[in-house]
Request: fold
Amino acid sequence: QVQLVESGGGLVQAGGSLRLSCAASGRTSSSYVMGWFRQAPGKERAFVAAISWSGGSTYYADSVKGRFTISRDNAKNTVYLQMNSLKPEDTAVYYCVSGTGWPTISYDSWGQGTQVTVSS
Reply:
């Protein structure tokens, strides 16, 4: 399994930006697909973005396309989520995930989550 630790969450005004980071550790962590999910209050956990092990392929939820960018630095075993033009509806706990397979991904490791709050 891969161990995942998120950071970078916080409070931001609508229209602002945040960058989340996720440090991965464990055997062959750089070979894993990485991604982000989020869970808003009273809602189910939802997919946000994913990136292939090489970084050459990415996939986004429609709700964040054009605003969020996922990237990874395999030398640092870290994945990032750059979030721009944030909206109040982006408020959620954001979870880093890892798994295998592309484009059908089987996720097997989850981080503890980091809170993102966007004020109007």
User: Anything to note?
Assistant: The CA atoms of residues 31 and 53 lie 5 Å apart. The longest strand covers residues 92-100. The radius of gyration is 13 Å. The mean pLDDT is 94.
